[in-house]
Structures are given as structure tokens and as C-alpha cells.
């Protein structure tokens, strides 16, 4: 579904922006699903201060599943689909496990299997200001350190039009990276290429959580239904929602490797599921991480 130029751009810069991936019906299903989770969580918690703007469907409490079982659930596609559909919209599992997984496969190493790593909504209520900003980070940083060189992609899907006033993303493209005219990288080539690009960020920026530097980085301004595909190694942050409307994004994340062997391989493009090895930590989630406040001296241009 991605075109070759988008894949080349992704390998060069660490991200690609794909307009018009979801149609209006699909956007509607995801918004309904998101709103249902938001309403459920809002009964007991403050989405911004308690949840860092992040709702992960399986840990939201909407279904009564022990944390230990969330990952096990992913081992059985039929059960996973049924439970996920029961949480909100019936169409969401198809978008999650078919459409988006196939799209993510275009940005992962050739011939690799595709695993669902994590799924989350990132919801910014209106007029919430600095509490809804996300500090500079790389999504790989949220994996256990032994998995930092695993290829992963985050599919950041705008469910509302996003722009600089309602809490959009700012991307920090790889500072240097070799060009890849080809779109198909083997697992080894992929890891070699992207980890080298990752290491080209200046040391002062690595791990910096405050947005102190003035920036001319790309500020994402895209209509609902568009997707920003981000490598796990690309640095990014996001702005506050200063608008009068809710800003909703959906971000499934996919990985290219099975971490524990559970089932025979499926055909490429069919979503399989990644399981944490022995750790109790869910991979990729940031539900417990509160966004760090940015310095007010942040420049947009
Ligand atoms: O949606 C946002 O504002 C930022 C999300 C983000 O950077 C992330 O979840 O990694």
C-alpha cells in the first residue's frame, strides 16, 4: 500500500507521511472505539494527569483481563479479535490486524513476519496546555534495553485533523543516513542501516527530555485518516492541545520478530503477535509515563 518513494523516505529520514490511508468509515469506527474507551476511563481517572493522555485498550479496564493475560491473548488471533471487537467497534480488529499490519510490513525488513507490539489511543482534551505535550523521545526507548535494536514501526494515525495548535507531532529526522534507493532491506541490512542512523543524533540530544532547543523540525499538519509511520529510532515529540476540540490519534505499533516461539509462521502480512519474553512489563506502552513539560521558549519556526 505504501509507494516506493514513501519507503525510501522512511529509510532515509526515519519516518514517512502517508495521506488518506483510512476512509471516513474507518475513521468513524476508530473514533467511536476511542470515545468509548475515553468515556470509560474518564469515569475514574483524569486522562491527562493520571494517564498521560494514553489509553491502551487492553489495560483500560473496559474488559476484565488480568495484566498477565494481555500478552497471552495475542497468541490466539480469533479470541483476540473477538475481545477487541467487544470493546468498541467490530471493524477495529480488521483495521488493526489486517490493514495497518500490512501497511507496517512495507516499512519493516523484507520477508519478516509482522507482530502486533502495542496499541494505544493518544487523546488530548481541549485547552489542556502543557500537560498534553510529549517530550522528545524515540519509541524504542520504551522497550526493555535488550530489545533496543529490534525493528519496530509506530503507525501514528490522525483521527482528527492535526496541526500546530491542537497537539501535533514534531519529527526530528535522522541527522545522517545513507540513501537506500531500494525499498527492501533484509533484517541485517535494516538493523545496520537504522541503528547507524540512530547513532548520528548528537549526544546532547540523546535522552534529552526537555524541548529546550529552538527547532525547525517538520511539524506534522495532516487531515484525519493520514498516517505518520515512524521507525522506533526516530526522535519525535508533540505539542500541547491549545484548541477548543479533542485531538485523537490512534497508534498501533508493529515489530518484525517473534520474541518467543509460540505458533507456526503465518503468511507474510498476516498479523502475528509479539510476546514479552519473561518480563512483566508490557512492551511499548507509555500509560504510566507522564509527559514532561516543555520550556516555554520553544520556537515553532
Ligand atoms: O500523539 C502525540 O501527541 C505523541 C505521541 C507519541 O509521541 C508517542 O506515543 O510516542
From TrEMBL:
It comes from the Eukaryota. Its cofactor is Fe cation. Signal peptide: none annotated. Residues 275-301 are annotated as: Disordered. Pfam families: PhyH. InterPro entries: Phytyl_CoA_dOase-like. Belongs to the PhyH family. PANTHER family: PHYTANOYL-COA DIOXYGENASE DOMAIN CONTAINING 1, PHYTANOYL-COA HYDROXYLASE. This is Phytanoyl-CoA dioxygenase family protein. It comes from Dimargaris cristalligena. The lineage of its organism: Eukaryota, Fungi, Fungi incertae sedis, Zoopagomycota, Kickxellomycotina.
